[in-house]
Design brief:
Blueprint (H helix, E strand, L loop, with lengths): L8 E4 L5 H12 L3 E6 L3 H13 L4 E5 L5 H15 L4 E4 L14 H29 L2 E6 L3 H4 L5 H21 L4 E8 L12 H9 L9 H11 L11 E4 L8
Parallel strand pairs: 1-2, 1-4, 2-3, 4-5, 5-6, 6-7
């Protein structure tokens, strides 16, 4: 089996379920040692680690609320202490608190911005120094098509994901001279826990608006992330790769 990420160490935030879980498993399948970050779901995170180890790979679960800078710093420090390096960072941790702006509370806004956007700042800040020292790094941030075109009832979520796009492009310019690439993926409608409770009408309309005529699956997002994390993408930085079945097209 081709293992293009062998001898690389990757941190995946929010990796205990959904897209994060799929990303962790795909990076491991391609040879990376994977740190499975989680906030609350210790059992689910350990299940991901067990899957990696059963397949012959290396993995470790580390608890951290990456929306808190000190905990994000500790996550990276623990990874470097354990494996000697961190080559790949995938910022996937996220949440939703969907409601119309008229009924959205300040707490709804703050939690989504803190979890989805500030966590990316925190983790990027934490890995920047060790990556700069080694003059190598791959950072992949998980945004969303909602951050590109907006979505009613998701002003907080769309703002957080649009912020990730701006952060990605700016950081790519800062870190490019040090051989560190920074890219983002923007998934469309994907079958995860976050979309499982979508009303049937909204699900139907989303599928009808998608040229491929279906929702995506986490593994399809994971493959895009793994590509951007590999040396096959060594001349790509500051880009946003939409993985959405054609839902959002820019002409």
């Amino acid at each position: 089996m081709d293992r293009p990420l062998e001898n690389r160490t990757a941190i995946v935030t929010g990796a205990s379920r959904g897209i994060g879980r799929a990303i962790a498993l795909e990076l491991a399948r391609r040879g990376a040692t994977v740190v499975v970050n989680y906030h609350h779901s210790a059992e689910a995170a350990q299940a991901v680690v067990d899957c990696v180890r059963e397949a012959g790979g290396q993995a470790l679960a580390i608890q951290a609320d990456v929306s808190v800078l000190d905990q994000a710093m500790h996550l990276v420090e623990q990874t470097v202490d354990t494996y000697g390096q961190v080559d790949i960072l995938v910022n996937n941790a996220g949440t939703t608190r969907d409601r119309l702006l008229l009924t959205m509370t300040e707490a709804d806004w703050d939690e989504v911005i803190q979890t989805n956007l500030k966590s990316v700042f925190n983790c990027c800040k934490a890995v920047a120094r060790p990556m700069v020292r080694r003059r190598y790094g791959r950072i992949v941030n998980v945004s969303s098509v909602s951050g590109l075109v907006g979505q009613g009832g998701q002003t907080n979520y769309a703002a957080s994901k649009a912020g990730i796009v701006g952060l990605t492009k700016s950081l790519a310019k800062e870190l490019g001279p040090r051989n560190i690439t920074v890219n983002a993926v923007a998934p469309g409608f994907v079958l995860t826990d976050l979309t499982a409770d979508l009303p049937d009408d909204l699900r139907r309309r989303a599928i009808e608006a998608t040229p491929l005529g279906r929702m995506g699956n986490p593994e399809e997002i994971a493959c895009a992330v793994a590509f951007l994390a590999s040396d096959d993408a060594s001349y790509i930085t500051g880009e946003v790769l939409t993985v959405d079945g054609g839902l959002v097209m820019h002409g």
